[in-house]
Design a protein that fits this description.
about 40% strand, Elongation Factor Tu (Ef-tu), domain 3, alpha+beta, 4-stranded antiparallel sheet, 3 domains, OB fold (Dihydrolipoamide Acetyltransferase, E2P), about 30% helix, 22 strands
């Protein structure tokens, strides 16, 4: 009898050992708590600073610009002289061209003499018709000539006066052409070396600093050649290109955070403008994207970003959505359940499936409207084999 009882106890122990050996062990899981606080959804891109107003100073006419003494970073005042422009020296004359010019000068001298002769002839003709008019008027007073004949004489006087005026104008034009020919001929003679020339001064259109000097050395320049760039570094803005689908959610006045610009603090700003026209840009992966520029004003005090300059790189974070006192859950705890989202909640050592309504999400948290309470422990990175009711153990 006692022997049978001993075998029975031994059998029960074996059955207990077998049950314990084949009992499923709780799965190790990572858990996180549901929190309540500020929820932010943002668009993050790389941007760069630029001057709000940039001025390119260029030459208004052809000439020889003197060496520019200004350097990058130099301050300039409005209407200050930033460059000096001298007239361009005419081309050198070879022996053949000099001989042709000398012959042309002789022809001009002959043209002047011919014009002078025409003036003399016109003056003589005018004296003649004036004398004839005087005799005709005397005879008309005595009744020997018709008054109509005097009218013809007066008309002839006016015609001869106009001819004399025309001849004098032709003489004046011939003298000017002769002077032009003589100037070209003596331009490089010994008497013209060192002759004073009138310079043209290029002035600054604005008070600011020199950003770039594009023409440092002396040289011949054409009209419209850029000499330097001017601007005010204290008036900066940030430009960033963002995807058009993100830009559709951004309005002027949206808050912006600027980080990793080189300073210790995160700068604040706001969107001033979303440009109306988009453009195509190829990403690093070779994908064509439609992007548009957003212009941002820096609202932090200028003394906090004095080290910033034109063309500096900054990390831009545009706060598209901000919700205070929002219930938040890590996005790593979410998984799709039909058309909704689900999470595994830790309850009494077991994983319980809860369906929740997610209003929005960012890269870290999701804003939960319904389905969870603050402080609830949820399983993050749940295994695909985990089911509702499975035994779990937090790590």
């Amino acid at each position: 009898m006692k022997k049978n009882i001993g075998f029975g106890v031994l059998g029960l122990l074996l059955l207990a050992l077998l049950g314990w050996a084949f009992m499923p062990t709780p799965a190790d899981v990572e858990v996180a708590a549901v929190t309540q606080g500020r929820f932010e959804r943002s668009v993050q891109e790389d941007g760069k600073t630029r001057l709000r107003e940039r001025y390119v100073v260029s030459t208004p006419l052809n000439g020889r610009v003197a060496r520019i003494a200004l350097k990058q970073g130099d301050a300039v005042e409005r209407d200050a002289v930033v460059a000096t422009l001298w007239p361009v020296v005419p081309a050198l004359l070879d022996e053949r061209a000099r001989a042709e010019q000398a012959a042309r000068t002789g022809a001009m001298q002959a043209a002047v003499a011919r014009a002078q002769a025409n003036v003399g002839r016109a003056a003589a003709a005018l004296d003649q018709v004036r004398a004839e008019l005087g005799r005709s008027e005397t005879l008309a007073q005595q009744g020997f000539v018709s008054p109509n004949q005097n009218e013809t004489g007066r008309l002839n006087v006016r015609l001869r006066e106009r001819e004399l005026e025309s001849a004098r104008q032709e003489e004046d034009a011939a003298r000017h052409e002769l002077d032009q020919s003589r100037i070209a001929l003596r331009q490089f003679s010994q008497t013209s070396v060192g002759a004073p020339q009138r310079a043209f001064e290029v002035r600054s259109p604005v008070s600011g600093k020199v950003l770039k000097v594009l023409q440092q050395s002396e040289g011949i320049v054409l009209a419209g050649t850029p000499l330097m760039e001017l601007g005010d570094p204290s008036r900066l803005e940030v430009v960033v290109d963002i995807l058009t689908e993100d830009a559709a959610q951004i309005t002027p006045g949206t808050a912006v955070q600027l980080a990793n610009w080189g300073g210790p603090e995160v700068l604040l700003g706001q969107v001033r403008l979303i440009e109306p026209a988009a453009f195509t840009k190829v990403s690093a992966l070779g994908v064509e994207e439609q992007r548009v520029n957003a212009v941002i004003d820096i609202s932090s005090p200028p003394e906090k970003w004095q080290a910033l300059g034109d063309g500096f790189k900054v990390d831009v974070r545009v706060l598209v959505q901000v919700v205070e006192n929002a219930v938040k859950v890590p996005v790593s705890a979410l998984f799709p359940v039909g058309s909704r989202s689900g999470v595994f909640v830790l309850e009494g050592g077991r994983a319980r499936l809860h369906e929740i309504e997610v209003a929005a999400r960012n890269g870290v948290d999701a804003w939960v409207k319904t389905g969870l309470k603050t402080g609830t422990q949820v399983i993050v990175y749940p295994d695909s084999k985990l089911k509702d009711g499975d035994s779990v153990q937090p790590r």
